[in-house]
Amino acid sequence: MSFFSWNDKFSMGVEVIDHDHRILVDLIDQLHEAFVNGNLDETVTPVLDTLVDYTRFHFAREEELMAKAGYPALTQHQEVHRTLRRQVEEIQERVQGGTKMGNELLAFLQDWLYFHILEQDRAYSPYMAALFPAGQDHSGR
């Protein structure tokens, strides 16, 4: 069973952003599965490393698109990203140092995605809609 289920309420209406968010959800689900199956040592560190790297990539792409869209709260959103990035990197360092995170890690990641997508990212959605008209492929892939 999925730990964090993607559904349409998370959609920003911009395929490239939704694609990134789905990848983040998938990585969190992989971490959950590793905890459930007891594959901590061989799975958690590489998946967490990928999550940290992809978070950096996604935040940079999202900020670039917000700038192109003329999002007026870009500076504030960048600060939210910096805070989240620091928190994820601190967790990564703790795990690499041998700290067992388990439920604490999963709860943080789940709360982060829910809060960030549903509240923080939702605020720029109208600006992205103007930048990326519906019905066009903006996957960036």
CATH superfamily heading: Hemerythrin-like
**What is the CATH class designation?**
Mainly Alpha
- The average pLDDT value, as a whole number, equals 85
What is the CATH topology? Four Helix Bundle (Hemerythrin (Met), subunit A)
Strand content: under 5%
Shape: elongated
Main sheet: strands, sense, barrel: none
Whole-number count of domains: 1
CATH architecture designation: Up-down Bundle
Structure report:
- This protein is mainly α and 141 residues long.
- Helix content is 72%, strand content 0%.
- It has a single domain (13-131), classed as Four Helix Bundle (Hemerythrin (Met), subunit A).
- Helix 1 packs antiparallel against helix 4 (103-120), helix 2 (40-69) packs antiparallel against helix 3 (74-96) and helix 2 packs across helix 5 (125-131).
- The model has no long low-confidence stretch (mean pLDDT 85).
Features:
141 residues; mainly alpha; Four Helix Bundle (Hemerythrin (Met), subunit A); 5 helices; iron; metal ion binding; Bacteriohemerythrin
